[in-house]
Amino acid sequence: MVRLNVNGAVREVEAEPDTPLLWVLREQVGLTGTKYGCGIAQCGACTVHLDGAAVRSCSLPLSALTAEQKIVTIEGLSAHADHPVQKAWAALDVPQCGFCQSGMIMASAALLAQNPHPSESEIRAEITNICRCGTYNRVLAGIQLAAEGGQGGRG
């Protein structure tokens, strides 16, 4: 049995130590907003926050985590989908198919928490998530809109 702090609640889960956090979140905790994409930490569909930093949960084994670390999933980013990044995504209709968007939003929110007013080159360097639909220009615009709102650092 392992204790994890997920979205502000302590959860006890039972899984093998080498089980990726992604599968613990989806199967044991029941939070399916974090998506499986590639399984090798390249695409970013599985991005969550670990102590405020964006991490790819598909390659993070349960054994690497402690109960003191704070894990935030897309479900815990904001109570009413009102995080500045989520609002910008809706305002600009950023997603096409939407599969990668929870990871994109989590990566973007972590970036803005660390750097509330990133330049275009900083955004392009930091947001390495892959979108099959190619909505990268809308993602960039969404991050810029969230940053302009002055609320990007929340979450």
Automatic annotation (TrEMBL):
One of its GO terms (molecular function) is 2 iron, 2 sulfur cluster binding. CDD domains: fer2. Residues 1-77 form the 2Fe-2S ferredoxin-type domain. It comes from the Bacteria. Keywords: 2Fe-2S, Iron, Iron-sulfur, Metal-binding, Oxidoreductase. InterPro entries: 2Fe-2S-bd, 2Fe-2S-bd_dom_sf, 2Fe-2S_ferredoxin-like_sf, 2Fe-2S_ferredoxin-type, 2Fe2S_fd_BS, Beta-grasp_dom_sf, Diverse_Oxidoreductases. The keyword Cytoplasm does not apply. The keyword Magnesium does not apply. This is (2Fe-2S)-binding protein. It comes from Methylobacterium soli.
